Amino acid sequence: MIDHLGLQCADVPAAVAFYTTVFAPAGLREAMRYETPGGPVVGMCGPDGFPQLWLSPLAEGTERPVHLALRAPSRAAVDEVFALARERGAEVLHEPRVWPEYHPGYYGVFLRDPDGNNVEAVHHTPPEG
Q: Which residue ranges does the record assign to the VOC domain (predicted)?
C-alpha cells in the first residue's frame, strides 16, 4: 500500500492534466495545490480525498523517472485508462492483459507519463474459490 508518492515533473500542469484525464476511471483527481518559487506542487487523491500522489517541479539538473502503480476498481477501468492514454498519445509500454507471473488475477496496463515515468493501472481480481 502506498501512503503517498512524490514525483518531480518537468511540467507540473502537463502532468496534472495527464493524471486527471487518463486515470479518471480509477478515481484520481486534484485534491490541493500550492505555489512554490519553482512552480506549483499538486496533491492528487483517489475517492477518499486524501492526497497520496504529489507532483512537484523538477529539481534543477535532476531526472528521476520511477514506476508508479495506481489501483483501478475493475478491469474495465484499466481498459478505459488504456483508451484515454492512447487518445492523449501516451507511449504504451504494455497493453492491458493478465500478468500471471505476478499473480493469476493481476490485470494491468503500463504507460509512460509526460516525464518518462513508467506508470501502471492495475486491478487485482480476487481468486475464485
A: 1-124
